[in-house]
Amino acid sequence: RIPMPESLLNTIQNIFFDFDRSDLRNDSRRQLNDLAAIMRDFSDYKVVFRAHTDAKGSNDYNDALSMRRANSAKQFLMSKGISNSRIETETFGEESPIAKNELEDGQDTEEGRQFNRRVEIIILDKDGTIMNEIVEEIDIPDDLEIK
Predict the structure, then answer these.
(1) How far apart are CA 92 and CA 90, in angstroms?
(2) pLDDT tens digits, one per residue of 58-113
(3) Hey, which bits of 86-137 come out as E strands?
(4) Which residues contact residue 12 at a Cβ distance below 8 angstroms, ignoring those fewer than 6 apart?
(5) Burial level of 136, CB count in 10 A (0-12/13-18/19+)?
(6) Is the whole model's pTM more than 0.85, yes or no?
């Protein structure tokens, strides 16, 4: 395996969405622009967008919303010249939270919900190995982390 250039370490952040939205925020567009540049430089890399929602709304609604979020990211990359064949999407709806949607006392936590409204970016090399050093890990505060 070819060593990854140090310049790529933690250069990409996962992208997040506003409540009940699938349109890309400006910070997400910047991340996807950077991702497109990496994918142009490394033409054998592929990306998987894993889309999620918070727990508000029905399962069916959230499944559809996570699909729209994944497609927003995919369409953006394609608009930057990245081939459809190099982009996969996976959708999870509300099934895989990384932060608490509610605290133990039942109080809603907007900050936790924000972490769950995300598309995780997984970059794969030509052998299908996850290049997890490129994408910065999501840092969830201890009080919101799901143990």
Answers:
(1) 7
(2) 999 999 999 999 999 999 999 999 999 999 999 999 999 999 998 888 888 999 99
(3) 87-93, 118-124, 135-136
(4) 31, 34, 35, 38, 121, 123, 134, 135, 136
(5) middle
(6) yes
